[in-house]
Design brief:
Strand content: under 5%
Structural class: mainly alpha
Helix content: over 70%
Order of helices and strands: HHH
Radius of gyration: 49 Å
Shape: rod-shaped
């Protein structure tokens, strides 16, 4: 074997080794490209999921806002109802006073009623609904 043959065999051996390394690198490159594609697909899925979560969160935020608004309206109605109940109490007290025989002036003083309110309550709820002669009281409003 002469020098030329040795160099030729060495070149062939290194060419074969380089070809094998090139093939191995190509296989690794394809695997890495597949992993990149998988990661991009996974990232796209995550992005879609996050967008859906944000959209859902905005929807829930709107829902919570509407529920809070509804609760405030219910509380306001309850307060109005309670206030109206308290507003009726002077009339209830005046009716009880009339049934116990109080005068119009007593109603006006104790219940803070106007003359017309006191007269009306007296007319509607007075126990003495008839005169001495048995006829019903005839109240006329002027």
């Amino acid at each position: 074997m002469n020098m030329f043959e040795i160099i030729a065999m060495a070149l062939m051996g290194s060419t074969l080794l380089m070809s094998m390394l090139f093939i191995v690198d190509q296989i690794r490159l394809r695997k890495l490209q597949q992993k990149i594609i998988q990661q991009e697909t996974l990232m796209s899925t995550f992005k879609t999921d996050i967008q859906a979560l944000f959209t859902g969160a905005v929807g829930e935020d709107n829902r919570i806002y509407m529920l809070e608004k509804k609760a405030r309206r219910i509380i306001e109605r309850q307060e109005q109802f309670e206030n109206s109940k308290h507003a009726e109490r002077p009339y209830e007290q005046a009716i009880r006073m009339v049934q116990k025989g109080s005068s119009v002036k007593d109603l006006m003083a104790v219940c803070n009623l106007s003359q017309g309110e006191a007269d009306l309550i007296m007319m509607l709820h007075s126990n003495s609904g008839s005169n001495n002669d048995g006829r019903a009281n005839d109240f006329t409003l002027q």
